[in-house]
Amino acid sequence: MNAIADMPSSASTAGAAVSTPPGAPLIEVRDLRKRFGDVEVLRGVDLQIARSEVVCIIGPSGSGKSTLLRCLAALETYDQGDVRIEGELLGYSERNGKRVRASPGEINRVRRNVGMVFQQFNLWPHMSALGNVMEALLRVRHLSRDEARRRANAMLDTVGLAHKGDAYPAKLSGGQQQRVAIARALAMEPHIMLFDEPTSALDPELVGEVLQVMKQLARDGMTMAVVTHEMGFAAQVADKVMFIDQGRIAVQGNPRDVFHDAGQPRLRQFLQNYFDRNAFWTREADDAPPL
What we know:
It contains 9 helices and 12 strands.
């Protein structure tokens, strides 16, 4: 599997010129609030994600995890607070002291270095794996077909699917389809990768192959925010774990502190429920959290 450090670069990559000061967070969120009708889904979220940091976001269903991630990708508007990507305000602009919704072009400019992988694979069924990875390179990055093909092949190799470029989604397993989706995001050379429960739609025996790709990305220094129910992955890979409950970050810290010292009652209950459902794990299991 190729390292991210060896990813091909191109002068036509729109985000190549952006850089943040050393030590500055790539993602910064302050007092983020989001409502759907009368329901306040995010209730004042604050977080920072540094360069090359892996943050795993855990919590019960309906706690606001996916909504938070979608706000980071500007797939949802937010009602209050700031989301800054590499120092730039996402989703809004300041004009004459007032905040106004940014234009689609401005939103795309700010989030151009953010890649996202969803629960569902969202591949084009009429395109091969190679075609799915090439499509945005052709339409968004405006690369030549030869350059797009070269980069797409390199990304399929990165996720271990160099031999599946000609295969169509219907002929790929769920794990392979999700790896194609990861390759598609990586081909755009993002500085930040967002993963929204990327293994939740997979059969259990296919989960590992996707997690292995994500572990390699972490080892190669990719900045990542991962909404996940895979506690073993969070324990092994995360630099920081955030537990969200009822729209707020209730607990955050390094994995050992979060998983070992679960003194917060809701976190303790959440972890107990998780391990009750996964009682086959042992302390010696390779993918088990250090509990």
